Each structure stands twice: as C-alpha cells, then as structure tokens.
Amino acid sequence: MRTPVPDARPVALTVAGSDSGGGAGIQADLKTMEARGAFGTSVITSVTAQNTRGVSSIHPVPTEEVRAQYDAVAGDFDVRAAKTGMLGTAEMVETVTDCVEDAPFPVVVDPVMVATSGDRLLDRDAERAYEDLVAASAVVTPNTDEAAVLTGTEPTDESTAREAGAELVEMGAAAALVKGGHAPGEEVADVLVTAETEAVFVHPRVDTEATHGSGCTLSSAIAAHLARGTDTVAAVEAGVSFLQRAVRYPLDVGEGPGAVHHLAEIRDRAARTDAVESVESVVDAVVAADARGLVPEVGLNVVGATPYAERPDELAAVEGRIARTRSGVRPNRGVRVGASSRLAEFLLAVREVDSTVRFAANCRFDGDVEAAMDSLGWSVVRVEPARDDEADSEAETAAREAVLNALEPDEETPAAVVDGGAVGREPSARVVAADAGTLADRLTGLAAAVETP
Fold first, then answer.
1. In the chain, pLDDT over 90 holds for what percent of residues?
2. Domain-by-domain residue ranges, the chain?
C-alpha cells in the first residue's frame, strides 16, 4: 500500500449557471480555476440548454436550493475567493447577495446580462437588484453594455470607461474592470478603476467570433488569483493575460463560432518539452552535416514554438547559438526556453500570418547561399533590412512589420525570408518550417549545396 501525498490548493467558488455546451458558465469557471491553480467549487443558479449557436432554454434553480449549495460549500471548504456569473432573476440576485455580502473572502461579480450569442440572460428587475451585489464585490467586471446598464454611462473609449468604473466604485465596489471587448477598434482596452488607482490593459484584438465564455473565463481567472493571495491589480492583469491566449487559440467545437480555450496556457507549458527536444534534433542534424557554410558571424540559431506560444521567452532556442569551429560546428550551450529574442520575434511574426509554422533558423546569406536556394527551388521572400541608425528595439519592431507586410495569408509561406543587411548588420536568411524534420532537411540540404567558406 502506498502513502498518499496530498496537494493543497486554495479553494475558489463559482456561483453561476450551467452551460450544457461546456464553453461558458459553471463549466468554464471550473476549467479556468483548475488551470489557474485553484480548486473550484460551485453553486449552480440555473440550468441552461445552450450550445455554440445560442441559448434555447433557461431553468432557474430554486433559491432555497442555491442557498443550500452555498451553505454546503462554505461549511466545509476554506473558500478564499468567489465569483458570480449568470443569476437571471431579482430574487436570485438578492439571494446570492445575502450569501456573500458578509463573506470573509473577496467576491468577483461578473454581471452577466447578455450571452455572447446575443440572448438575454437577465430580467429587468434583476438589473435593479444588482446594486447591493456590486457594493459587496472586490471586483466587478462588466463589459461596455453591462456598464451602461449599471451606471447609465456608456463606455465608448478609455475616458468614458474610467467614468463608468468610477461610478461603480462609488456604488461600493472595491474595484471595477470595464472590459473593452465590445468596443470597436484594432486594440482592446480593459480599464481597471479603484479608489486609489487606475490601470489600463491594452492588447491587440483577435479577429474571431469564438469568444463564447470569455467573460466567465476572465472573472474566474481573477477569482482564482485572488484565492491564491494575489493583490487585485496583479490578479486582474494575470486574468486579462490568461484570457488573451484563450481567445487567440479558440476551440473549434460545435457548429457555431466555437469557444475560448480555457486550457491553452497549460497546453503551452506542456508542449515546451517537445519544442526543446525538437530544436535539439535540428541542432544534431546541423552538427552531423558539418554545416559550416551556413553559420554567420553572429552564429546560427534554431528556435521552436509550441502551438500556443505568444512571447519570445516561451520559445525554445540554442543558448549562445551554434558556432563554426575548425573541425565543424557545435552549439555553445544547450537548448532552453527563452534563449532567443530576435529570431524568436521573427518566428512569432511569421506565425501571425501562418500559424502552422513552428520552427526557424538564421543562417549566412550571400551570393553562394542565394544560388544554392535557387538550385533547390526554394521560394524566398525579401524584406527591407533595418536602418543602421535604428535602436535595437526599433529595429525589432521594423523587422516584425517587414515580415508581416511581406507575407500573404492566402499564399504558401516561403522556405526562407532574407534581407541584405545594413551598416553594422550582417545580411541574413531565416529558414522556416512547420516541423523540426522539415527544417532539418532544409538546412542540411542547403548546407550540402553551399561551398564551405
């Protein structure tokens, strides 16, 4: 018989409706809380018949049963934070308020009024009953439509979002996060207001309709971080970052737009080991092929991304690059996550256009390499090199924009992207591929076609 090894996790509670489609409500909340390191418990306020296309029916749970669920959880678990979601009726809002207003833990209030599909989830009387629940909240997280209903101020930009947030704080909320996802624009600005400070979290808008469950996911992530003892501003920032990836990599399920991917960040972390091993396999192939003819003065590097990577520090690369020696080539150190900046930025830019590309390497570029690429029948795209008077950060931004402008989403991604260099910047070729095997084949084939200098 083996000895158990218990895993202690902070407990978070969700008080919300059930989504039979699994993308929002209680189901989304519990997935998110688990992904964010909390043990999720639940109080179900209603049972819905819904999917990715819409809500066909809503059956409220009797309020006495809701109270019984809450008492059962609160009487046994050390709840560290809670969140509320779809409540539906004035009586339900009042019941939930009575349960949590004196609770010894912070409460995140997501004033769910309309589903992503457009279906109304809250009756008119319940809208008026929300004032006391908002006053009991540590954070209230309305979108622009909900903020307008609660405050009478319609947020159309950062300034009016601050106004709406300030009104919610005046109503008694310790903090108000006015979400900008429903507002127009290429960027989304989520505005956090407290009595002491303001913060704006700006991020690029993702061109997708698969946002089912986004509000539930954000509020649950914030609650999970509060349960772990994170302060409010940091918990909100972490929640916003978590949701960005969940929206960027949605789940293609159902016949509607789909749902946000509550476990995208966990999947990313789990895939990093495979990315490291894949980069190592490319390095082994380059070393075995004695690819000295491809190594530029700065050294050759290889980077690999998981299917969910978003930042350079999440990509695997060779630490110290691969150097040319008298007897061949060798990596200076091993492969680790976060070992590349510029090449990683380049690969992320390519992935904005073609998400199937997951690997890249930089190599020497001159007339011999160009001729070898031609002889192999490679498709090659040229980009303008960074100006020699640009700072490194400016050069990286310019290089990213050059890649985005050069590649076409509806056309086949080239085998390499090259630039002719500039004063102080060596000409370079960056070879890309969807998988490590293809990248290794391209690099070793190119090395064989290039005369070693």
1. 76
2. 11-262, 266-449
